Amino acid sequence: MHTDTERCVRAVQSKDARFDGWFFTAVLTTRIYCRPSCPAVPPKAENMTFLPSAAACQQAGFRACKRCRPDTSPGSPEWNARADTVARAMRLIRDGVVDREGVPGLAARLGYSTRQIERQLLAELGAGPLALARAQRAQTARLLIETTAIPMTEIAFAAGFSSIRTFNDTVREVFALSPSELRTRAARGPGRQTPGAISLRLPYRAPLNPDNLFGHLAATAVPGVEEWRGGAYRRTLRLPYGHGIAELTPQPDHIGCRLSLTDPRDLAVAISRCRWLLDLDADPAAVDEQLSADPLLAPLIRKAPGRRVPRTVDAAEFAVRAVLGQQVSTAAARTHAGRLVAAHGVPVGDREGGLTHLFPSPEALAALDPDTLALPRSRRTTLTTLVSALADGTIGLGFDSDWERARVQLGALPGFGPWTVEVIAMRALGDPDAFLPTDLGMRRAAGGLGLPSTPAALTARAAHWRPWRAYAVQYLWATDDHPINSLPE
Questions:
Q1: Is 281 helix (H, G, I), strand (E, B) or coil?
Q2: Cα dihedral angle (157, 161, 167, 169), rounded to 10 degrees?
Q3: What is the overall mean pLDDT for the chain?
Q4: Which of 196, 223, 325, 411 could form a disulfide with 338 if both were Cys (CB 3.0 to 4.6 A apart)?
């Protein structure tokens, strides 16, 4: 979008927050870059240029605006709505792969050379993988500086910088303030941090309907791993350097996020996974406009716009849970998952609630005795085959997954029908066009609205909903009186 100058100028002049994250405004006279909704007086059109990423702005010598904090704007919805190489690369960079494995590691995961990856990212985003990772490190550093009392030396390495000097230089260059000045400014602001926890706000593009989003997560919560407590969804996280607990609270204009981490180096990854879980980088205006073109869906969208697709923080975990949920009630699926957690999960401490374990990894589940599972024999075979394939790498589910290839691999496993494959594609892989025409709730909702209720006919009608069929599923599910559709008390 950043190449459409006229459209970008209109967005900036109207301070349209829907375009935050789509592009950034770089002001040639002040050498500052802003989000489109910056509250400052808009610069003259001839003094504006538009860039596709914060990293591109920083690389071009612009520093972040202190009023609108463009480095904290919602991420571009493109990276979650596409499955091409650039989108998969961006999801991996946000998950910290470049910091942990370098550009060669990123390229290896995507099956390209480092030169090819750098060329593709530079062409589309105006910055290569190192610059994109550097921008993320700067934002992580700022969060740690402003929300914790951790010494600056520890923050530098926790944020992924290789030296104190690089940390200091980057913070000054990006924010036009030294690390100590950032902390001093933050100390003047309202609010106090809970010791041992990092509190922050997760932005999103309005509107956001929290009912089905948090309702689904709470109603399907696995005992010991997830819970709804005090108006917040809480869950344990397995992270690259340790583990953590995330507490997510819906607010009118943001999601409150409190993270307790065993290693601060996991901060950026934890934030990225929480945003992915809640689908916070979606563009609800584009989704709802497309779906509202169907006259039978339009009333649902007018009534409760901005529905998101509840996802997962761990694709392998969700795949296991999808198998446990085959042809059983939500309560039964929770019971089966809770037993696996109690028997094979990693114990963790939680001083504030009832979280007790990390969900067991595929490697841990690959060693279980199938006879201990209170499941039909065919379901046991399905589960053990899945966890073996995940554990030995035959099937890889993650941010770098090719959606169609993953579908083919999952569909080849015993006991994997279209419903299981598509629900994993929708909630674990994040395909916005995943569709569940065989789902009983979908067919019941479709029939009640006057839509075709047979799978083939419903699929044909849904061709007009593409590429947002996964969101149409949420709107149709929401017509049912089920706990997944209600924000818990």
A1: coil
A2: 170
A3: 93
A4: 223
